[in-house]
Amino acid sequence: MGLSTHVLDTMHGCPAAGMAVAFYSTRGADATLVKRFTLDGDGRSPDGPLLASGDLRKGTYRLVFDVAGYFKAKGVALPEPGFLDQVSLDFGVADPGQHYHVPLLVSPWSYSTYRGS
After folding, report:
1. What is the CATH number of the domain that holds 89?
2. Distance CA 63, CA 87 (A)
C-alpha cells in the first residue's frame, strides 16, 4: 500500500531512468518538499514507495517531473523554450488505507497520467 510513481518515456518506449522528481505535500498554495529522487532503471523511485502505507495521510500532494532535463540528457534536440519543461501533478489522497499509484506517460510534447493500482 502507500504511494508510488512510475514514469514511462513514450518517445523511446522505455522507463524514464534518470529523470529527476520532486515530491511535495501541499496545503492550499503552500508546498513542503518531502523528498527529491532520481528514477531508477525501471522508472521508479529507487527507495520503493514514496510514502509507506503507515506514513500516507489524507490530503493533497504534488509530484514534479523534470521532463525537459530528462529528454535533453537523452540527446533529444528540443526547441528553446521547450514545449514541456517540468510536469507538475497535483493529486489528493482521500483514503490512506488504499494504495495510490501515480504513473506518468511522457514525451517531449505530451503526457498523461491516471490513478493506477
Report:
1. 2.60.40.180
2. 8
A 10 A CB-CB count for 26 gives 15
Q: What gap in Å lies between CA 7 and CA 86, rounded to an integer?
A: 13
Residue 1 has pLDDT above 80, yes or no: no
A 10 A CB-CB count for 37 gives 16
Q: Residue 71 and residue 92: Cα distance in Å, rounded?
A: 28
Model pTM score = 0.96
Instruction: Count CB atoms within 10 A of the CB of residue 82.
Output: 15
Residue 16 grid coordinates: 524514464
Contacts of 19 (CB under 8 A, 6+ apart): 7, 38, 39, 43, 65, 66, 67, 69, 70
Q: Is 32 a residue whose pLDDT tops 80?
A: yes
3-state secondary structure of 73: helix
Task: Determine the structural domain holding residue 108 and report its residue range.
Answer: 2-113
- Could you give the number of structural domains in the chain? 1
